Amino acid sequence: MTTVHSEPLIPQAELRLHPMSWLFELLNVLKQFIVPIVFLLITGRGNSYELWGLIGVGFMVPLAIARYISFRYRIGDDRIVIRSGLLHRTVRDIAFTRIQNVTLQQNLLHRLMGVAEVRLETGGGEKEEGRMRVLGFAQARALQGIIRNQEHDNTGPQAADGTPLADDEQTLLQLPTRELLKLGLISNKGMILVAAGFGAASQFDWQSTQKLFWKAGNWLWSHSGELAHNSYVSYAIGGLTLLLAAFTLLRLISMLQAILHYHGFVLRGSDHRLSIERGLLNRFHGSLPRTRIQAWTLQQGWLQRRFARFQLRVDAAAGAVKSEHMESNWQLAPIADAPHIAGVIESVLPAGTWPVAEWRPLHPNAWKRKFKMPAIILISPTANIAYWAWPLALLMVLAYPWLWIQSKQWAKHAGYSHANGLIAVREGWISKSWRFAEVRKIQAVYLKQSPFDRRHGMATVFCDTVNAGSYEPTLAVRYLPFEEAVALHTELSAAIAR
To answer: Can you say whether the dihedral through the CA atoms of 350, 356, 357, 360 is positive or negative?
Structure first.
């Protein structure tokens, strides 16, 4: 727990930040005010108003320097003490045993200057208890090593700078460049970036964006006309060529993003925590205590199945890194084959819990519950469209056979397991997912029945973990026979009450 004092501590063996930390403080403040400053500079048009932007920047420089001068930290035997503030001074006293995570963030400028931003995170809040912007990289690694070694009374071998020796951790997963290229091929993040770019461009100059599409289309169609005399065939060839070019561009962007984000990805594990390093330009060094892992999600999309690859991420207890970086940082395996995925899971979970030996099926009529809700929702738009465009409505009617097939296949492949202290759920047909958690990590369990459930004699059991419903979905065992759902609810309730 962190205590905040109103009076300053007597400076004894207090340490400063890196001498260039004021520059990063300045950049951080400018980032928050960059929009109004640029607006004043652009709209000033030579009058006195444009000077306000320069005056604001000039005022921020001594402020950033003053923050650097006022920031001190001291490392004790069992705690770190951080003093900061200009007018309102605070002293944070953080025990090593309360620090659950120490992360090092490095962007390109950090790496060029040999520094890193250090974030200290406890389990009692939604933001960091301490942020040091910035320390020398060697100094930051030494601080990280000191805290990791002392938080669990680790007296194992250490390097001269205080960091644990390599034999303290075991490499669980390391991604070569070829795996990152596969990750880019099977991900759709490139599509999101391109769509966002075109969307932003259209907001400022829609006509230019429209002209770009027209010029590209006309160029392709003119060249495709050399291959076919029929105009319709020429248009078809041009359209397909345009789609192929767009798809290729999206894949290239996705591969580039995967390399930038996950270059040098290494997952390591020790007795108490997992650590991750990744990033090409922006480098991330972070760790996750094993005790904070609440649930696991294993996914395999359609394209991932073609490459025989999986994705594994974990839900962690609340904290600062959770709110800002959780989605990417705690993907323990952005891409990996089955043996590596199994190795990561088995290294963390108790022995004999994974893989699940036997999956229990859902209610025989589970497919009806899966089918009915989207089918009912689809009725209204289909009826409205049929009023003015019945051919289109006819196409929407064809969605019902697909919903029926999808629901039948989903129910066929879905199942759950409750054994060896583990609750697990599997779902999906084209894209598959497995979500599981240790029963001892469940915070609450409840049973739910909708009117449709009661009609078919079934119910759903929800298992809440820390952060369930806010950051991550609950673990839901859906569409069980009512008696079986009641029995599972009773077993889980008794288990978490011990």
So the answer is: positive
Judged by average pLDDT, the poorest of 176-185, 196-205, 314-323, 340-349 is 196-205
List Cα–Cα distances, 391 to 79, 381, 383, 399, 402, in angstroms: 71, 14, 12, 14, 18
Q: Among 334, 163, 158, which residue's Cα sits nearest to residue 263?
A: 334
Is pLDDT at 217 greater than 80 in this prediction? no
- For residue 88 the two structure tokens come to 């309102």
As a whole number of angstroms, the distance between CA 349 and CA 444 comes to: 21
DSSP characters over 66-130:
HHHHH-EEEE-SSEEEEEE-SSS-EEEEEEGGGEEEEEEEE-HHHHHHTEEEEEEEESSSSS-SE
**pTM to 2 decimals?**
0.75
* Alpha helical stretches, state H, 173-319: 177-186, 189-204, 206-224, 231-262, 302-306
Measured at the CA of 436, the angle between CA 435 and CA 437, to 5 degrees, comes to: 145
Give the mean pLDDT of 128-140.
Answer: 84
CATH number, domain 350-498 = 2.30.29
Q: What is the CA radius of gyration of the chain?
A: 28
- C-alpha–C-alpha distance, residues 395 and 470, integer Å: 37
114, 409, 451 from 378: Cα distances, Å = 57, 20, 19
Backbone angles phi, psi at 19, to 5 degrees: -55, -25
What is the rounded end-to-end Cα distance, in angstroms, of the chain? 26
Q: Is 408 helix (H, G, I), strand (E, B) or coil?
A: helix
With bands split at pLDDT 50, 70 and 90, how would you rate the model's confidence at 27? confident
Closest CA to 481 of 453, 460, 455, 458: 458
Candidates 213, 186, 205; CA nearest to 311 is 186
Domains of the chain, residue spans:
186-261, 350-498
Name residue, tokens 């609810």. 489
